[in-house]
Amino acid sequence: MKVVIIEEEEILAQNLKKTMDRMQEVFKRVDTFPDFSEFAQHFKKSEQPDLLLLDVLKLDHKALRFIQSHNVTSPLLFTNVLKTNNLIKGPHAEGFIKNLITANNFLQAKSKKGRMLNDLPESKISFPSDTSGDIPASVNQKYHQRFLIKNKEKLISIRTNNVSLFYSEGRFNFVKTKDNRKFIINYTMETLNSLLDPGIFFRINRSMIISFDDIKDMFAYFGGRIKIVLNTPMEGETIVSRDKVNDFKKWLGE
C-alpha cells in the first residue's frame, strides 16, 4: 500500500510515518507533505497513492478542484481526530494503524462502486474557513485540562485554567501562564484552537489565542479593529484582526 500524509504538524506526520514504516509488509511506501500544494506538485509526476491522510481543514475549494481536475481517486481519511485524542502516540499507535487498514479496505470497496470524492459535485460539500483556523466543537468533545511541557530536561504540566495566552513568535509557538512564565509548546495554532474550550479561549488573530480571564481592558482601534490590554505583560500591541472582530464581540456577549 502506498500512502501519502498531508499534515503541517511535523510531529504528528512523523509519528504516523514511523509507525507505518515498521509495518512494511502492508505499507510499501509512505510520503509526507506539509501542505496540499506540495502534494499537488508531487502528484503530477507520480502515480496514484492507495490512501490519502490529511487535515480536513486543508481540503478547501482549491484542493477539491485539483482532486476533480486531476482525477485523484485515492480514498481519503482525515487526521484531525489524532490531534485531540493522541491516538498515534505510545502503545495505541499500531492498533490505530490496523484500524486504518480496515478503514482503507472499506473505502477501496466503496470506490469500486464509484462512490469517490471526485464524483461528488462541489456544491454538495461544505468547507471550514481557510483563514479562521477554527474547528467547530462537537457536543462530545473533551477539551484539554493540562498541557505537558518539556523545558530542557524538565517536564512541566500546566493546567489550562492557569494559561493566559498562546502565541506565535517566529517559527515557534509559546504558552504564557498567569504568573508570566513562558514555554515553547509543540502544537500548531490550529491544533491548539481545537483543544481549547471556546467559551474560555478565543483566537484573536493568526498568531494569538487569549483567555477571557486575562483581558484587562479593551479599546476601539483604527480600521474597525479592537486593541486589548492583557493582565499578562506582552511586548507590542495585542490586536483583534478585522476578520475576527464580529465573532469576538459575539464571544464577549454582544
Task: Tell me briefly what this model is.
With 254 residues, the chain is of the alpha+beta class. It contains seven helices and 14 strands.
Describe this structure in words.
The structure is a single chain. The protein is α+β, with helices and mostly antiparallel strands and 254 residues long. The chain has 2 domains: 2-124, Rossmann fold (3-Layer(aba) Sandwich), CATH 3.40.50; 159-252, OB fold (Dihydrolipoamide Acetyltransferase, E2P), CATH 2.40.50. The chain is built from 7 helices and 14 strands. It has helices at 10-21, 36-43, 61-69, 80-85, 93-111, 189-195, 245-252, and strands at residues 2-6, 29-33, 51-54, 76-78, 146-151, 154-159, 163-169, 172-177, 182-184, 201-205, 208-211, 215-221, 225-230, 238-240. The strands form 4 sheets. The protein has a 5-stranded antiparallel beta sheet. The protein starts with a strand and ends with a helix. Mean pLDDT is 77; it is low at 85-92 and 109-141.
Structural descriptors:
four-stranded parallel β-sheet, Rossmann fold, OB fold (Dihydrolipoamide Acetyltransferase, E2P), 2 domains, single chain, globular, five-stranded antiparallel β-sheet
Looking at the overall shape, the CATH architecture of the largest domain is: 3-Layer(aba) Sandwich
Shape: globular
- pLDDT < 50 stretches: 85-92, 109-141
**Alpha-beta content class:** alpha+beta
Q: Beta-sheet strand percentage?
A: 25-35%
Order the strands across the largest sheet as they lie in space.
9-8-7-11-10
Looking at this structure, what is the CATH superfamily of the largest domain? Response regulator
Fraction in helix: 25-40%
Overall pLDDT: 77
Q: State the name of the first-level CATH class of the largest domain.
A: Alpha Beta
Radius of gyration: 20 Å
How many domains? The number is 2
Q: Which sheet architecture does the biggest sheet show?
A: 5 strands, antiparallel
How do the helices and strands follow one another from N- to C-terminus? EHEHEHEHHEEEEEHEEEEEH
From the N-terminal CA to the C-terminal CA, the straight-line distance is 52 Å
Total count of helical runs of at least 4 residues: 7
The number of distinct β-strands equals 14
CATH topology of the largest domain: Rossmann fold
